[in-house]
Every structure is written in C-alpha cells, then in structure tokens.
What does this fold into?
Amino acid sequence: MKPTHIEHIGIAVKSLDEAIPYYEKVLGLECYAVEEIKDQKVKTAFFKIGNTKIELLESTDPLGPVGKFIEKKGEGIHHIAFAVENVNKALSDVEAAGVKLIDTQGRKGAEGLNIGFLHPKSTFGVLTELCDNN
Ligand code: CMX
It folds into this structure.
C-alpha cells in the first residue's frame, strides 16, 4: 500500500466546546462540521488545513476508546489517519506484513469514509487509521 496524504490527525479533548475556540480564534481555522459517531462513542469536530484535517474527539462514554485514552494519558494526539486508494486492500497488505489489525475490514467512519484501524502495539505506539473515500 502507499498512502496519498495524511487524511486527518485525531486529537482527544475533554470538551469540544472548550477546545473549538482555540482552533478557531487562536489558530484561525474554521470548524466546518460537528458529528456524533455513536458506535465509536465520540463526538467529532473537523477543521480543514491544506490537504489534511484536524479531527477533535470528545468522548461520549468513559468506557469508549477516547474516554479510556483520556483517563490513561490525558488530552492529546490520539491517532493519525492515512488516505489510501482502497482500505480493504491496504488492510490486507498491512496484515500480510505482520501488523496486528483492529479492523480486518473497512467500516463506515466520520464523514462517510471507509476506515480501518491498526493496533498501536504493532505500529510503534501510534494508533493508525487507514481510510478511503470510495
Ligand atoms: N494511541 C496509542 N496507544 C494507545 C491508544 C492510542 N490512541 N489507545 C490505547 N493505547 C494503548 C494503551 O495505552 C494500552 O497500552 P498499555 O497496555 O501499554 O497500557 C493499550 O493500547 C491498550 O489500551 P486500553 O486502554 O486497555 O484499551 P483497549 O485495549 O480496550 O483499546 C484500542 C485500545 C487501540 C484497541 C482501542 O482504543 C480501539 O479499538 N481504537 C480504535 C477505534 C477508535 O479509537 N475510535 C475513536 C476514533 C473514531 C474516529 O476517529 O472516528
């Protein structure tokens, strides 16, 4: 597989309401979408910057992935997402290279993208998402 660009960087925050003004008023970016992803137990806010995006993640459940992350590590960078041509193909390529997958098949994520996660214990500590827009 060969990623085309960084689709987004996911950042865990305790509160979207508190974090959004920093990105808008201090960094001068515009929040263009807020979306709840129920099965991921998060509410997200998106900002475009060049060819990539910042995705702020607020947990809606302390036992969800972002709730557990904030409890353990505090706020901060949660994951990096690479755009690929085809998520299912990329996941199988990565698995064949010996990387542990969280998702063996792509599924629908924020903004209707097909997404799949790689396990951070297999990717040098960085939770990694692959996504396509097909
Ligand atoms: N980055 C790096 N390491 C992480 C991590 C992250 N975001 N989240 C968890 N870990 C580490 C933990 O620190 C822990 O390490 P230690 O064993 O050394 O303490 C280990 O992974 C296990 O963590 P855990 O808290 O016990 O949590 P789980 O094993 O239950 O789940 C994970 C971890 C990565 C499998 C789970 O968070 C997951 O499936 N994530 C993918 C889905 C996701 O994050 N969704 C939210 C974003 C949705 C979106 O962007 O749309």
